[in-house]
Amino acid sequence: MKKTIFAVALTAALGLSAAQAETVLYGSLRFGMNYAKNHNNYEIVGNQWVQGEEKKGADLVDTGSRIGIKGGEDLGNGFKAIFLAEFAFDGMEGHLGNNGGGFSNRLAYIGLQSDTVGTFAVGRQDNPFHSTVVFATADTFNEVSVFAGALATSFVLTGGIIDTNGNGDTDARGLASRVGNAVAYVSPTWSGFSFNTALIIDAPNGEPANLGDANTSVDAFTVNAQYKSDFGLTAAIGYLDAQRVGDRTAGPMSTDAKVYSANVGFENDMFSAGVGYTDGKSTSDMMGLDFPLDVKANGWDIGGQFKFNQEMTSVRALVGKAKGKFATNVAGFTNETNITNWAIGLEHKLSQRTRVWAEYENQKTTYTLRVNGGINQRPESDKTNRFNMGVRHDF
Q1: How far apart are CA 50 and CA 40, in angstroms?
Q2: Contact by Cβ (8 Å): 186, 11
Q3: I need a surface site. Which of 70, 110, 196, 358 has the fewest CB within 10 A?
Q4: Any idea of the CA torsion for 244, 249, 252, 253, to the nearest 10 degrees?
Q5: What tens digit of pLDDT does each residue of 322-371 get?
Q6: DSSP 9
Q7: Which one, of 284, 228, 220, lies nearest residue 251 by Cα?
Q8: What's the predicted TM-score (pTM) here?
C-alpha cells in the first residue's frame, strides 16, 4: 500500500529528467508527543520475575526528521547516473543524530538507471525485502512502529530476540528497514510485474578473515517480486537468506536464517487494504559452546486506509500478530513469545507538504518459558498502550 517502495525509491524518487544534471536539497521535519502506559511492568530481581509499578509518561519527540541531497546525470544512450545521501537528526532534543552522536546516515547510494535495463545501486539502501513485501501491507502510519512481519523477521535473524523496534534503522547484519554494504538491482516493469534483488556483504570489523564461517562471502541476499494491475490489485512475494555473525550477551553468535514473506492487496486513489504473512526459521550457535538455538517465527498483518475530504484527510487501521519460539538442547529449554498489536490513526494534510496526525497503538505480549517440560514463573502477559500526535513538514 505504501507507494514509495524500494523500486520507486531507486527509479523515480529522484524526480529528475534524463536531460538534467543537478543536485536537489530536500528534507522533512517531524515532531510529536508520545504518551505510553505499561500495565504489567515486570523486571528480574535476583532470579525471579517480579511485577513492578505500573509505568506511564509523556515525551515530546522527534519522529524521524531527516535531510538529504539527491541528483542525477544523463550519460547518454538511455542511461543516467543517480545518487542520494540522506541523514537523520533529532530536532526536538536540540542535538544532532541519535543520543547526541551527530548526523545518523539513513541512506547513501550511487547507481546507474535505465528505463529498459533497470537500476543498479550500491551503498546504504532501503531493504527491498522489508519495503517490497513486509512493510507494503500496512506502512501508512507516521509513528506506529510494530509490524508483526517485521517482528517475526527480527526474531529469526537475532536468534530469538523479539525487537519491538524491528522495523527501525540498524546496521547491515540487523537487516531492518535500511541496510548498508548492499548492492541492489531493480528491474523495469513489464505489464505490472517487476522484481528486485540485493546482496549484503559486510565482514565483521571490516575484516573478511574475521567471519565466523570462512566460506561465507555474502552475509545475506534477498529476491522479491511484485505485481500491480491497472485496476488496483497488488501482490508481492519475497525471500531472505542471511548468514549473520554478531554478538550476544553469552558471547559471539552465528545465525543461519531463512525468511519468506508474501502479501496481497488493493489500492486506488481513495482506498487501500492489504494482508501479509511472514514465516522463517534459523539455527544459531554460540561459538565455542555446545549451545545451539533452533528458532522459528511467523507473523501476519492486515491493514487498510481510507481517504476523504478531497484526499486531504485519511483514516487507517492495522492489526497483526507475531509468534516466535526458540529451543536449545540445554535442560529442555524452550521459550515462546506472542505479540498481538493493533492500531488506528487519523491524518490531515494542511497542504501538500504539511500534515498533522493522531494515532493510538495497543500491544500485548505473552510468554511461555519451559525448562525440562515445566513452566517457569515468568509473567503471562505484558501490555502497553501508546498514543501519539504530531506535525510533519516536507521540503
Answers
A1: 10
A2: yes
A3: 110
A4: -40
A5: 999 887 766 566 778 899 999 999 999 999 999 999 999 999 888 776 66
A6: H
A7: 284
A8: 0.83
